[in-house]
Design a protein that fits this description.
This protein is of the alpha+beta class and 140 residues long. It has a single domain, classed as Arc Repressor Mutant, subunit A. It is 46% helix and 25% strand. The strands form two sheets. A three-stranded antiparallel sheet has the order 1-2-3. It has a two-stranded antiparallel sheet with strand order 4-5. A hairpin with an 8-residue loop joins strand 4 and strand 5. Helix 1 crosses helix 2 and helix 1 packs across helix 3. The radius of gyration is 19 Å and the shape is elongated.
Length: 140
């Protein structure tokens, strides 16, 4: 099986330790929890992050961009903007729309490229969660 995403895509993340409460200086590390932002870039430009991931996964679940946008708390127009930006940066479609007719409504489905992005982001995010939990247990 080939790579989940193009080798030209770069994984970028920020790891930030946030304190949940003020603690005495001697125990200042114990209140910290790791948090991160994860996104994929191509040639230094943002391609895909958590918002796009949640949107595509919701499209998979609902079969509708309208329903997916509502589920993740985005306007329809904003959701389409995210889709267009990802597609423009990748040079490949991540969703496919189906026109409705007199008998039934249309819909939206995730393309194989979109499904690969969902899978790759999900696997990376799970790896970060496991690593952060282990680091917190070992170091903090």
């Amino acid at each position: 099986m080939g790579p989940l995403i193009s080798p030209a895509l770069t994984l970028r993340f920020q790891l930030v330790l946030w304190g949940r409460r003020r603690v005495p200086e001697a125990d200042s590390v114990s209140g910290l929890t790791p948090h991160w932002k994860l996104w994929l870039e191509h040639d230094g430009r943002y391609v895909f992050g958590r918002g796009a991931f949640l949107l595509l996964r919701a499209i998979q679940d609902t079969g509708s961009l309208t329903a997916a946008a509502q589920r993740v708390g985005m306007s329809y127009r904003y959701a389409w903007g995210i889709i267009r930006k990802v597609e423009r940066e990748l040079g490949a479609p991540v969703v496919e729309t189906h026109r409705g007719g007199a008998v039934g409504g249309g819909g939206t489905s995730v393309t194989p490229v979109g499904a690969r992005l969902i899978r790759a982001f999900s696997l990376l995010d799970e790896a970060f969660q496991r690593t952060a939990a282990q680091l917190q247990a070992d170091l903090l």
